[in-house]
Amino acid sequence: MRKEIISNPLFRTIFTRLGLGFVTLFAVSLIIFAAIAVLPGDFAKATLGRAATPETVANFQKSLGLDRPVAERYLKWIGGAVTGDLGLSFSSGSGTPRTVGSIIGPRLKNTLFLAGITALVAIPIALLLGIIAAIRRNSWLDRILNAVTLASISFPEFFVAYVLMLLLAVKLPLFYSLARVTPSMGSIEVLERIALPVLTLSFGIIAHMMRMTRAAIIGLLSHPYIEMAKLKGVPPWRVILRHALPNAWAPIVAVIAFNLAYLIVGVVVVEVVFVYPGIGQAMVDAVRSRDIPVVQGCALIFAASYILLNLLADVIAIATNPRLAHPR
Amino acid sequence: MISNRAASHNRQNGELLLDIRNLTIEAEGSDGWQPIVKDISLHLRRGEVLGIIGESGAGKSTLGLAALGFTRPGCHFSGGSVTFDGRDLLKESEERRRQLRGTRIAYVAQSAAASFNPAHRLIEQTIECVMMRGLASRGAAVQSATDLFAQMQLPDPETIGDRFPHQVSGGQLQRAMTAMAMTCKPDLIVFDEPTTALDVTTQVEVLASIRKIVEEHHTAALYITHDLAVVAQMAHRIMVLRHGELVEHASTQQMLSEPEQTYTRSLWAVRTLEKPEEPPAETILSVSNVDAHYGDFKALDDISIEVPRGRTVAVVGESGSGKSTLARVISGLLPSAAGAVSLNGVRLAPSLKQRSRDQLRRIQMIYQSADTALNPRQTVMDLVGRPLSFHFGLKGRMQERRVAELLDMVELSDRHIVSFPSELSGGQKQRVAIARAIAADPDVFICDEITSALDQLVQEQILKLLLNLQKEMNKTYLFITHDIATVNAIADQVVVMCRGGIVQQGAKRAVMSSPDHPYTKLLLSAVPQMDPGWLDTAIQNGRLAKQNIE
């Protein structure tokens, strides 16, 4: 039994990809650390101001551990990260230590929440519209969908955000214009508050995913097995759903994963516009105050979510390919 | 095909099932709509099989699909009628036509491997039509599909349906596709070259299964093929098409014994081409005890061949027998694991990277598909001129003159010198590929199935060209093919390969007339003959030969 699992190409591929994912993450952590180490700007000098003497700067750096060699600092950091400890923020006071985890944690939760709700709304709509556009390809409906999605991809996000805010919060006061959420709010209220950011984000990613779904399905329609299905008298909607779609999952899942990763790491503009306390804002703030451990922590989480989501997409693509899932 | 008289009487007076009148179909090309089927009329009674033959581009498939009221994208019906069971399909709604497809008119495609959906198990696809229309419960549908699998002589009919298409061989898929077409018990099946992609020995079995099931279910069929000998086994009547027009239409007996049109006779010509066997000569290329591997798989096992100068050695065998691997080993593309390849008595390095430029020049390959072997972005001048500058340093006017000479040798006009491959026909492209090989002035040409992708008439022309070149320049060919007619046409000696080994080799006449290995017998007996009774004999012989091999 165990041997079977090892020799099954599906499982073997998953294990290989997982291993490669870890290797990639490790390499990325090196790059993050090295990039930040060579960046100009020094937390100690910035905090202490111009009047600081070299001795005070040196003392301060020693208290932060910045006097140690780079390699040692990296090992300490990555060693902690493996156990989930991302270290102490530079903003910790002498008696009040603030861990990076305690700064990023709540922000990450908010970001995942916003991303999750957006994904729940956007993915089904995108798939549905993509499939409809493929079934009714070259009809007026398809053309309109194409034009609208092209436009919504082309507009920058902050523009869409402000337009929606103007229309749906100011002119027509349906939603909150700002998405300031606090832990004390009930879930219904939170949902109401984040409605506009969800809408803004959905616009862009629905367009992207829908166009890919349509293209992936239509790309398969010239295959002989599609003609065979038609010659068996299979109705057009069934040709798409049963004969084209199952073969189109790999590219569709890849673009969904890409968009989910974007929802986690790329939404800082939307967070800023709606004043939403997400991880993107946390990172920007940390960069501004040169709080290096927080910046590193954010970057590592971003990298991990990209790698994880793409890994998931690969696994789904392999699992939906009968050649790999059911070897000869 | 049905020997008894009653059946034959039934057919001639049976109910008219399909009646195509003055059908014209147009396709959209670069210069507007062009007719690809021109004013064709045909009729088919219940239980009757009509063969349609012709070369590629004759409009056979288009006509076959028209029987289902279907045109491919970019084509449309522009005149005539397709009356099926009293109703003109061209006047019916698409919805009505769709309901007839699969249930009353079914289709069997050329490449079953491409026409089965890779995402679903065979059984799901086989019973889809029945289930979709609610004609039977799932259990009953699976049961009848299993029965059909058994009738088509598929192995493990109970469980083969649970497999995915990639888990089943090409010949088995082709049979499964015929079973799929039968599930709704259609009145008419269109077979579109159902055995063209198969090896000859597999073809015999699939042909036999198809014929049996069509007879038992009394199904009418349109049988489309380019192979006259195949259609002779299957059809009661035969239509010959060319450029979308009807050339000739007669009963099978008459078509075989006295075809009226020269075109019909010429379709058969390649089968009758036969090179007189030349006496042996000194060895130019020798392969001794060669082994080769793909990873762990042993693709060649102890191969020894002597190729005499100025002669043709044909290497025959089915796909997977190691023919092309042998070509790759000789040319150095695949370094051998053991044994030696010698040219003019000089031992060659296993890998082409270690061979000298002159050694490389002396062995030239010509491939099956000129489409992929010629760079689509180079003109004929570039393609043929490259070996001239590479091996002989010919440049400018000298090179141009030589290219024109070479084109003349392969019977291409020098106006093609500026053409791109896409502007040439399949036969012309293969001529360019041959000219490119001659340009290097090699000792040995390795021809890997170079006529397989071509129409019969073009095949004949290319083979004649090769024979002439051999006569004039005393060139040596190692000719890889799966087609026995091609062997007759070109070879002096024959090497028969099976599963990576040589089962028999020798002078052509000796091998062909007294095949002493059972596999050679099987291979020879599987080649379709014009005699309508051939299939029955072939099945008998084939079974015996197979038992002998195992």
CATH topology of the domain at 283-508 in chain B: Rossmann fold
**Treating each run of at least 4 consecutive H or I residues as one helix, how many helices of chain A?**
17
CATH architecture of the domain at 283-508 in chain B: 3-Layer(aba) Sandwich
Pairing-aware structural class of the strands and helices of chain B? alpha/beta
The helix/strand class of chain A is: mainly alpha
Strand content of chain B: 25-35%
What is the CATH topology descriptor of the domain at 108-279 in chain A?
MetI-like fold
In short:
Helices cover 75% and strands 0% of the residues of chain A. Chain A is mainly α and 328 residues long.
Label this structure with key terms.
heterodimer; A: 328 residues; mainly alpha; MetI-like fold; 0% strand; globular; B: 550 residues; alpha/beta; Rossmann fold; six-stranded mixed beta sheet; 40% helix; disordered N terminus
Tell me about this structure:
- The complex is a heterodimer of chains A (328) and B (550).
- Chain A has 17 helices and no strands.
- Chain A starts with a helix and ends with a helix.
- The model of chain A has no long low-confidence stretch (mean pLDDT 86).
- Chain A has helices at 2-7, 9-38, 43-48, 54-64, 70-82, 100-135, 140-154, 157-171, 187-193, 195-220, 224-231, 236-244, 249-265, 268-273, 279-288, 292-319, 322-325.
- Chain A is mostly helical.
- Chain A has a domain at 108-279: Orthogonal Bundle (MetI-like fold), CATH 1.10.3720.10.
- Among the domains of chain B are: 114-183, no CATH class; 283-508, 3-Layer(aba) Sandwich (Rossmann fold).
- Helices cover 40% and strands 25% of the residues of chain B.
- In chain B, strands 6-7-8-3-9-10 form a six-stranded mixed sheet, sandwiched between helices. In chain B, strands 16-17-18-13-19-20 form a six-stranded mixed sheet, with helices on both faces.
- In chain B, β17, α20 and β18 form a beta-alpha-beta unit.
- Chains A and B meet through α11 and α12 of A and α3 and α6 of B.
